[in-house]
């Protein structure tokens, strides 16, 4: 999965941890945006559209797990035994089998590590460099078309 997918899965994980049995499309959307900003700080624009007949906060999210659910990135962090997010990222980078088993593209973890997002130390130049390297490695397949079209117009 890409950034959107992992942000959404982390939101589902968080809502379940908060003992939220049912939630709206609006809550899911806001949680996805929150994780996109906090974990990935991506350049993607995650948007939502709805009709005037129903607002997102009044529409139930239909895909609520009934059993205990942990997002792949949460599972990876737990499997490393790390105490901090930065340690978890470093441990995940040296265990590609763990990442593959959880369906996590190693380029995504390398992006998080290289950008400083996990440690809270973000250097804008390093973030841009890491994002470009992740894209070159195929970590952003879901936005590749948009990036290519923007590059052609500039």
Distance between the termini: 29 Å
How many helices? The count is 8
What is the helix content?
A: 55-70%
Spans of at least 5 consecutive residues whose pLDDT stays below 50 are 142-154
State mean pLDDT (0 to 100 scale): 74
**Overall SS class:** mainly alpha
Strand content: under 5%
Characteristics:
single chain, 154 residues, mainly alpha, 8 helices, disordered C terminus
Fold and architecture overview:
This protein is an all-alpha fold. The protein contains 8 helices and no strands. Helices cover 57% and strands 0% of the residues. Helix 1 (3-17) crosses helix 2, helix 3 crosses helix 4 and helix 4 crosses helix 6. Mean pLDDT is 74; it is low at 142-154.
Summarize it.
The protein has helices spanning 3-17, 25-40, 72-80, 85-93, 96-101, 106-115, 124-136, 144-153.
Secondary structure layout:
Elements: H1 3-17, H2 25-40, H3 72-80, H4 85-93, H5 96-101, H6 106-115, H7 124-136, H8 144-153
Helix pairs in contact: 1-2, 3-4, 4-6, 6-7
């Amino acid at each position: 999965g890409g950034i959107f997918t992992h942000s959404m899965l982390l939101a589902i994980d968080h809502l379940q941890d908060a003992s939220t049995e049912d939630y709206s499309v609006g809550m899911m959307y806001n949680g996805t945006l929150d994780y996109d900003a906090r974990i990935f700080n991506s350049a993607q624009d995650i948007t939502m559209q709805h009709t005037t007949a129903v607002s997102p906060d009044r529409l139930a999210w239909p895909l609520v797990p009934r059993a205990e659910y942990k997002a792949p990135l949460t599972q990876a962090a737990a499997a490393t035994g790390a105490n901090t997010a930065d340690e978890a990222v470093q441990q995940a980078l040296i265990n590609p089998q763990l990442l593959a088993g959880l369906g996590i593209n190693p380029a995504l973890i390398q992006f998080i590590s290289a950008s400083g997002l996990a440690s809270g130390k973000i250097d804008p130049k390093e973030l841009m460099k890491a994002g470009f390297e992740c894209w070159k490695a195929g970590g952003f397949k879901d936005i590749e078309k948009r990036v290519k079209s923007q590059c052609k117009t500039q």
